[in-house]
Amino acid sequence: MCVIWVCDEEEHVLATWQAPGSCPYCGGAIIGADVQRAWRLCFVPICFSGRRRRFHCSFCNRSLVAVS
Fold first, then answer.
1. Helix (H, G, I), strand (E, B), or coil: what is residue 41?
2. Which of 3, 9, 39, 41 lies 20 to 30 Å from 48 when distance is taken between CA atoms?
3. What is the C-alpha to C-alpha distance for residues 39 and 24, in angstroms, rounded to an integer?
4. Whole-angstrom Cα distance, residue 66 to residue 68?
5. How many Cβ atoms sit within 10 Å of the Cβ of residue 25?
6. In this structure, are residues 32 and 19 in contact, taking their beta carbons and an 8 Å threshold?
7. Cα–Cα distances in Å, from 19 out to 15, 26, 60?
8. How far apart are CA 45 and CA 42, in angstroms?
9. C-alpha angle 24-25-26 in degrees, rounded to nearest 5
10. Model-level pTM?
11. What domain of life does the native source organism fall in (predicted)?
12. What is the DSSP string of 45-66?
């Protein structure tokens, strides 16, 4: 018996912008991005979701967490 699970997730950056504030580690500018995610099962798209996420520093390139 052989079980094959073929599942994939792709992310595409739709747009980027400069977020307000500065990096707490180095003081650099913070960059945000709109990301669209696509789930695929056997290369067939199942679900698309787009949202704002991915905040990172433009200087030290650390990922930052958005606090609301």
1. strand
2. 3
3. 34
4. 6
5. 11
6. yes
7. 12, 15, 15
8. 8
9. 105
10. 0.58
11. Eukaryota
12. EEEEEEEEEEEEETTT--EE--
Which region holds residue 26: left if phi is over 0, alpha if psi is between -120 and 50, else beta? alpha
Q: Tell the residue number behind the tokens 């707490």, with chain if given.
A: 24
Query: The tokens of 63 are what?
Result: 């990922």
Tokens 């400069």, located at residue: 18
Long-range pairs for 30-37: beta carbons < 8 A, 24 or more residues apart: 30/55, 30/56, 30/57, 30/58, 30/64, 31/55, 31/56, 31/57, 31/58, 32/66, 35/11, 36/11, 36/12, 37/9, 37/10, 37/11
